[in-house]
Design brief:
This protein is an alpha/beta fold and 294 residues long. The chain is built from nine helices and ten strands. It starts with 16 loop residues before the first helix and ends with a strand.
Length: 294
Amino acid sequence: MRKREDRLPFCRPWIGEEEAEAVAEVLRSGWITYGPRTVEFERRFAELTGAEYAAAVSSGTAALHLILLALGVGPGDEVIMPTLTFASDPNVVEFCGARPVFCDVDPRTLLMDVESAASLVTERTRAVIAVHYTGAPVDVEALAAALPSGGPAIIEDAAHAAGTELRGRHVGALARAGFFSFHPIKNVTAGEGGMITTNDAALHERIRRLRYHGIDKDAWQRYGRRATGGYDVEYPGLKYNTTDIHSAVGLVQLDKLERANARRAEIYRRYREALADVEGVRFPEDPPWEHTHA
C-alpha cells in the first residue's frame, strides 16, 4: 500500500506570531521562570472557569499528582476513574501508592457511567476522577448526588475541556478540584503545562507549596518587584512549577480559545458528514444534559 505524502499530522497547534512575540518579550525581560506572566495566566484561568483559585504547574499529570498528594491519597486508598482515560490518571494514582479502580463508561457518550462509579465506592475510596472525555462534560452534579454524603472527593479531569460548560457553569470549578493540560494536542497549549482549579482555599495553599519544594513563597514573591524577603520550607514538596515562557504562550492561546473551539466544532461537523455513511464508523453521542462542548 502506498503511503500518502500529505498525511494529517497528529497535532498541529494554532501558533502564530502573537505567541512568538509574547515569548520574545519574556526572554527580553530577564525574568523567565514563575513570575508576572504566570500570575496573570492563573488569574485569567480562574476568571475563565469561575474558580476561586488557580495554580499553574508543569503538566496535567503534575496537576493530578499534586491534587492527590494535597488530599492525602496514599497506600491503601482507592481512586475510581473511567476505563476510557489517558494512562497518566492511573499512573499517578499508582505513584501515590494507591489503587486505581475502573468504572464503566456509557458506550454512547464515552463518558463515565455515574451509577457504575457510585457502585464501586468502598471505605477505602478517597477520590473519584470524572474525565470530561474529548471535552464533553460528565454530569458532575449527578455524580455528586450518587456518591455518599461526605464521601470521596470528586476531581475533574478537564485536560481537554477549556471552554466546556455544564448547565452554564464552566468545568473545573464544579467539584473539589479540577485540572487542565496545555500539551500541544489540547485546545489551549503552552507547549507543555497544566492548571489546577479549586474553590477550596486550604487545598489551594497546600498545592501551591507542594508544587515548589514545600516553600511558602513562589519565586516572584521572593525575588520580584515586591519581594518580601526570606522564605520557609514547610514540608517536602516537588518541582512542578511552570515558567513565564509557557504562560506567555498560554495567555495568547486564551485570547484565541473561543475562535479555536468554534473552528474545531466546524471541522468535527465536516468529519461527521463525510463519514456518516461509512460502515463501521460510529461517533460519540452528545450527552443529554445541558452543556457546551469545547
